[in-house]
């Protein structure tokens, strides 16, 4: 049987993220077809996998760096993993486990590689290979306000063929929930792991992670360190579930595993053990200890065999020669039934029932947008504490303003109008900014994971986020405005009221976008909220209320042209006072000519320079819309930055 070699470059594969469905010419997988049938035997083989990096910058012991032309990470690794069995990939730190796993799972984005990968002996492209495999990451990162039903339902809608009926998709969700034993918690909100009294515990979250991967009925399941962060009892529960999955669904379950307990170790059927970027053992778990014993490394009766294996094959003490001898001895052992003997004959043709999804099967962009926006609305509604807090803020702040402000036509009433309108715009921008910072920070890890998994694209997320935010910001501002407008003595007219709500809503929406921008760039809530006043203060100071424009240093006066609060405040002032309002004053305030300092609404407007270019309310509203569009664009750059940053962090 011939095997076709493949090569990959980081640029190619990074561009086509996992599950993205994009073809890559750089890979030729030697595999058989895809299937959704569960009773077929699957054999995944990999042959002579080499992975290396070129021009590697290595740090020497003295701290200086040198550029190594080629650094080999995997040096011709071969092996075989079969369905219906649990196979572990074990080895000391730095042995090459993650690299091998990533190459096999199509996630090695930053290295060069060559070799061949076979499934039952037939050719497969990268996209098709990804159709039959799934990767379970270590982190069970989900939206904590959602339930397992919501999470799996969303993924089913996004990942399963678009032509599949809603009932069939629901049946898939029911199936994986039952398989992983999550029935009792399927309608429970996840909550904060280890913090929320109710919600899913660590084990249930790990199982949900597996369930999410199984939705697409993969035939090969790559599981990255499924027991990390779990105590022995929890690890046992998760591993027993995986074993049930492997046995009942005849899947290839291939796990990297770190320091397993004796129980977990013995749950595995097969093992691949790596050292120095090579296979140091491949075969039955039962034979590992006798194999090392034969090579002169006896395992104490009471010692965890996993610890023994890792210690014996650990080269980090500097004794690479010793470890290399053990590897050579394993490969030289021709009698070893476990050693991989090269590509096998075709094991079974996989029938065509589950042929890879064509592009037309995939959910179209508008379907993705719909699902994402629906989820974002759900998250906001589920997050009832934040929702109640925002509604409460709008009402309480509105009532407070209503109690304090009582506008009349006196001189004080004129200046109080200025203060009130400035206060309402400032309040709108700060409150919405703060709210959106916390929302994005809470969702950031999930967003990054789902984008990396190819479930949706970053722009789709942004558009859905912005779209779902809109009704809520308008609602908060409507509530606030109803109270403020009719209790403070602002001019009572429906037209003016609606313009007031419109301007307030636009300011709140821009504030919300600024929150997205800050949290996307900084990645944490504390820094974002600390930076918020720094961004908004120049806008406040150049709005024409706190300080007159003439008093601002000349070189900073341009700031008023980019002051969203100036446009919003002056729009509201024009709305309130243009060609309206007559002010009077007591005799002691009268000027020598018998007039008051401010006699009309238009004088009040002129005093605040609110009649300067651009003229009129609607041109200001138009500029506010421009601010909105611009901040959506900057939020796009922010999210792009976080996605790229995440890729870089993963590489380093
Ligand atoms: N992109 C890369 N560039 C340079 N060296 C790399 C790269 N990826 C991995 N390596 C190196 O290759 C070796 C194997 O790394 P790998 O992460 O596969 O080991 P591992 O067995 O998974 O270790 P651990 O258990 O600590 O995760 C390590 O020495 C690592 O530093």
TrEMBL record:
Q: Which Gene Ontology MF annotations are present?
A: ABC-type transporter activity; ATP binding; ATP hydrolysis activity
Q: Where is the composition biased (Low complexity)?
A: 1-27
Highest taxon of the source? Eukaryota
UniProt key word Transport: yes
The entry's cellular-component GO terms read: plasma membrane
Query: What topology in the membrane does the UniProt record assign?
Result: Multi-pass membrane protein
Question: Where is this chain's protein located in or outside the cell?
Answer: Membrane
Alphabetical UniProt keywords: ATP-binding, Membrane, Nucleotide-binding, Transmembrane, Transmembrane helix, Transport
* Designated name of the protein: Abcg4 protein
Q: Which organism is it from?
A: Thecamonas trahens ATCC 50062
């Amino acid at each position: 049987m011939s095997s076709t070699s493949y090569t990959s470059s980081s640029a190619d594969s990074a561009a086509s993220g996992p599950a993205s469905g994009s073809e890559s010419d750089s890979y030729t997988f030697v595999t058989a077809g895809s299937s959704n049938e569960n009773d077929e035997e699957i054999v995944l083989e990999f042959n002579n996998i080499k992975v290396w990096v070129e021009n590697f910058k290595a740090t020497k012991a003295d701290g200086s760096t040198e550029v190594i032309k080629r650094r080999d990470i995997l040096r011709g690794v071969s092996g075989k993993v079969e369905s219906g069995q649990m196979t572990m990939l074990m080895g000391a730190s730095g042995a090459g486990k993650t690299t091998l796993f990533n190459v096999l799972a199509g996630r090695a984005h930053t290295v060069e590689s060559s070799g061949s990968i076979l499934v039952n002996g037939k050719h497969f492209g990268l996209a098709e290979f990804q159709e039959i495999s799934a990767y379970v990451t270590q982190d069970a990162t989900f939206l904590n306000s959602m339930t397992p039903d919501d999470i799996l339902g969303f993924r089913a809608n996004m990942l399963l063929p678009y032509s599949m009926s809603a009932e069939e998709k629901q049946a898939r969700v029911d199936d994986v929930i039952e398989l992983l034993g999550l029935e009792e918690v399927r309608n429970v909100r996840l909550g904060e792991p280890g913090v929320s009294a109710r919600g899913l515990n660590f084990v249930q979250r790990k199982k949900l992670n597996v369930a999410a991967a199984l939705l697409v009925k993969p035939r090969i399941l790559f599981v990255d360190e499924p027991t990390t962060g779990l105590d022995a009892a929890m690890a046992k529960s998760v591993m027993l579930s995986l074993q049930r999955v492997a046995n009942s669904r005849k899947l290839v379950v291939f796990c990297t595993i770190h320091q397993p307990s004796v129980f977990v170790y013995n749950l595995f059927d097969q093992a691949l053990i790596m050292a120095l970027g090579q296979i140091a053992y491949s075969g039955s778990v039962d034979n590992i200890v006798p194999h090392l014993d034969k090579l002169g490394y006896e395992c104490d009766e009471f010692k965890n065999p996993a610890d023994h294996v890792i210690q014996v094959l650990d080269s980090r003490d500097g004794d690479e020669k010793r470890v290399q001898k053990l590897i050579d001895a394993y490969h030289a052992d021709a009698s070893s039934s476990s050693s991989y003997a090269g590509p096998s004959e075709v094991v079974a043709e996989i029938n065509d029932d589950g042929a890879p999804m064509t592009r037309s099967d995939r959910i179209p962009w508008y379907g993705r947008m719909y699902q994402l926006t629906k989820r974002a609305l759900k998250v906001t509604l589920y997050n009832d504490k934040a929702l109640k807090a925002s509604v409460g803020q709008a009402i309480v702040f509105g009532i407070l303003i209503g109690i304090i402000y009582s506008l009349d036509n006196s001189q004080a009433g004129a200046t109080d109008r200025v203060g009130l309108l400035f206060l309402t715009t400032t309040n709108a921008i700060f409150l919405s900014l703060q709210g959106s910072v916390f929302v994005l920070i809470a969702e950031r890890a999930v967003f990054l994971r789902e984008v990396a998994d190819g479930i949706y694209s970053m722009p789709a997320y942004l558009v859905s986020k912005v779209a779902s935010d809109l009704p809520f910001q308008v609602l908060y501002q409507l509530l606030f405005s109803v109270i403020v407008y009719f209790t403070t003595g602002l001019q009572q007219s429906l037209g003016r009221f609606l313009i007031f709500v419109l301007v307030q809503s636009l300011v709140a929406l821009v504030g919300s976008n600024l929150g997205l921008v800050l949290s996307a760039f900084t990645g944490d809530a504390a820094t974002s909220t600390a930076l918020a006043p720094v961004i908004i203060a120049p806008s406040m100071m150049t709005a024409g209320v706190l300080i007159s424009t003439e008093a601002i240093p000349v070189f900073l006066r341009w700031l008023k042209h980019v002051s969203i609060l100036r446009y919003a405040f002056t729009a509201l002032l024009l709305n309130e006072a243009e060609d309206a309002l007559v002010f009077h004053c007591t005799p002691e305030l009268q000027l020598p000519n018998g007039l008051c300092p401010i006699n009309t609404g238009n004088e009040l407007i002129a005093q605040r320079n609110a009649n300067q270019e651009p003229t009129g309310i609607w041109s200001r509203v138009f500029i506010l819309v421009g601010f909105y569009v611009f901040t959506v664009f900057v939020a796009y750059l922010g999210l792009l930055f976080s996605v790229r940053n995440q890729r870089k962090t993963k590489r380093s």
